[in-house]
Design goal:
binds magnesium ion; binds uridine-5'-diphosphate; single chain; alpha/beta
Length: 339
């Protein structure tokens, strides 16, 4: 049955699973079956009722067909297919809206985050923690450049941003339903989920784990996308760049005042007042350059305001395979403008 036909009244009588595992997938045909096998094995041994939600983020390879087979063969698997590629963070966001579990685990499809850590996360959750975030102790198979940029990323964000972001965390984490409900209320378009789960508060604990190399396929985060993500992290959680603009602007104004005084004195009391042309030339170029940089920074914020102001849905779903969910019904009702 199409989930679009469901209303609140014919909500299926399906008990809420204890755990929902969210797996965003973009062109993961080489790994997805292995991932499902390993995840299923771990979850079967974890002793909790569960569902595994695969979000197909507009894959262009055979990922969808493989997911379709998984959904029809495994009672725990559900597949949400987005209408196109919306990006990793949005795919995970879609997963959060479809997840019914009392807790949710976010994990990548490429087995870089070992599913075997999930039972440890569940144990921490049972101790009462509401966010259990994975911290990478080692990252095998990633080149020095990726490691260095990743380190720089966390350090810069922490310097600039108002919410602390634990070092070397990714999105591999377990979050309680309370936090899921909080995240569902955060509708911003430029998202960095790891920073958003830090912002919400609640009881949080770190869980160290070893990050493995990609099982197969290649990273979908080229440098360009990493920079975009870093920029989202900084601009969505910080107005420090704007403050820097103001501070430098004030310094500039001070030097400008000195320059003006100097020019006036030279003009009034000097006889050869064309001197200082070099200084003037340099000043004009310098001010021009600085102004363009600042316009760019302000433009980044304005662009984001424009993006948010349009209030478009963050993603569109083209198909749902497997059992329907409470979350989906709420989402679709919300998309229709319902309560
Ligand atoms: N992913 C996605 N949409 C995208 C890019 C990536 O859903 O546009 C998924 C991808 O399938 C994987 C996860 O996000 O499960 C992390 O991506 P990747 O492994 O390429 O990133 P990296 O580990 O290299 O940072
Ligand atoms: Mg990866």
């Amino acid at each position: 049955m199409s989930p679009f036909a469901l209303s609140r009244d014919d909500r299926p009588d399906r008990p809420r699973p204890a755990l929902s595992v969210i797996v965003p997938c973009y062109n993961e045909e080489e790994v997805i079956e292995t991932t499902h096998a390993r995840l299923s094995a771990v979850m079967a041994g974890a002793g909790v009722s569960h569902e595994i939600i695969y979000i197909d983020d507009g894959s262009k390879d055979a990922t969808v067909e493989k997911l379709r087979a998984i959904a029809s063969n495994c009672a725990h698997a559900r597949v949400v297919r987005l209408s196109r590629n919306f990006g990793h963070q949005i795919a995970v966001t879609a997963g959060l809206e479809f997840a019914d579990g009392d807790a949710v685990v976010l994990i990548d499809a490429d087995l870089q985050d070992p599913p075997e850590v999930i039972p440890e996360m569940i144990a921490k959750w049972r101790e009462g923690y509401e966010v259990v975030y994975g911290v990478r102790t080692t990252r095998e198979g990633e080149n020095a450049f990726k490691l260095w940029t990743a380190r720089a990323f966390y350090r810069i964000i922490n310097k600039l941003s108002e919410v602390p972001l634990p070092l070397d965390t990714g999105d591999f984490r377990l979050i309680d339903r309370k936090v899921v409900l909080a995240l569902r209320r955060m509708h911003e378009r430029y998202r960095l989920l790891r920073a958003m789960t830090s912002w919400v508060g609640f009881r949080q604990v770190a869980l160290p784990y070893e990050r493995h190399k990609r099982f197969a396929g290649e990273s979908k985060y080229p440098l360009r996308k990493m920079l975009a993500l870093a920029l989202d992290g900084i601009l969505s959680f910080s107005v420090v760049p704007l403050r820097i603009v103001t501070a430098v602007g004030l310094c500039m104004a001070f030097f400008a005042a000195l320059g003006i005084t100097y020019a006036l004195i030279g003009r009034i009391f000097g006889d050869d007042w064309v001197r200082g042309w070099t200084l003037m030339f340099i000043t004009v170029l310098f001010f021009g350059g600085i102004q363009f940089i600042f316009l760019g920074i302000i433009g980044e914020y304005v662009g984001r305001i424009y993006g948010e102001a349009k209030q478009r849905p963050l993603y569109l779903v083209s198909e749902v395979m497997g059992p329907p969910s409470f979350g989906a019904i709420e989402t679709l009702a919300h998309e229709r403008g319902g309560p």
